[in-house]
Design brief:
five-stranded mixed β-sheet; alpha+beta
Length: 137
């Protein structure tokens, strides 16, 4: 699965975004080591703080399905009614969730560049010196 293909899946997921408060729609597509793709969208709440980001929705769906090994995640976000014309980087909470389940040296985060291209980062680049499960061993 190429980065471009995974981004396309993230765009599909974005269509399901429930974001009546921010009107900012985000989609994510998470690739497992076995080749399965889990989609996630942001899900907001009238009480605001229970909001779940697209990335975490994808992770929690996959974890609940028994998946534990992941290769990369694609993320696309932008204002409702518009194509995602900007880079949407994962928030700090989502980066920490990735740190729980992914190897920061190899896990890739694929972001739309706002045009038709994409950029790819390693988790260790977006979360330097991250605290993870190995620190508790
Ligand atoms: N959001 C995501 O789903 N993922 C990100 O990477 C950044 C932000 C959501 C949370 C909220 O529903 C909306 O975007 C505005 O912050």
């Amino acid at each position: 699965m190429t980065d471009e293909m995974l981004l396309k899946e993230a765009k599909k997921a974005r269509e399901c975004s429930y974001s009546p408060y921010s009107n900012f729609q985000v989609g994510a597509a998470l690739l497992t080591k076995g080749g399965k793709v889990y989609l996630g969208c942001n899900i907001e709440n009238a009480s605001y703080t229970p909001t779940n980001c697209a990335e975490r929705t994808a992770f929690f769906k996959a974890i609940c399905d028994g998946e534990r090994e992941f290769t990369k995640i694609a993320v696309v976000g932008g204002k409702k009614g518009e194509d995602a014309k900007q880079i949407c980087t994962p928030c700090g909470v989502c980066r920490q969730v990735m740190m729980e389940f992914c190897n920061p040296e190899t896990f890739q985060i694929v972001l739309s560049d706002g045009n038709d291209g994409c950029q790819s980062y390693l988790l260790k680049e977006l979360l330097p010196m991250g605290f993870g499960p190995n620190d508790l061993k």
